[in-house]
Amino acid sequence: MLPSNPAVYFEIPVKDIQRAEQFYSHVFGFSFEKEMIDGYEMALFPFEEKNSGITGALAKGDVYKPTKNGVIIYLKTADIDETLSKVQDRGGKTLYPKKINEKYGFAVAEFEDSEGNRIALHETLKND
Known about the structure:
The protein is an alpha/beta fold and 128 residues long.
């Protein structure tokens, strides 16, 4: 097996898949593809094979429990401040305000989504 980045897919637990889709569509502009996988409702995030990164789904079912504890997924954004504003528009909360890491050229923040999950943001800083 060729070496690669270890993460290949993620699932974000949801209670109300329609509400979660509307939240992520508003905040990030995502459109989702609906699927039933192993009896669970899934709303698949966009994915382009030729681009870097991984994809995942919003997932609803008895084994999916939204939480602010546990694994944190980082979603890429061009502008953390704008994204956090959209989070607030949809009833989400900022959990960790924007912090800039100038040494490595990025910023991060965390928010609570419509379902009660802790989600992180990553913004690559522009070199002026």
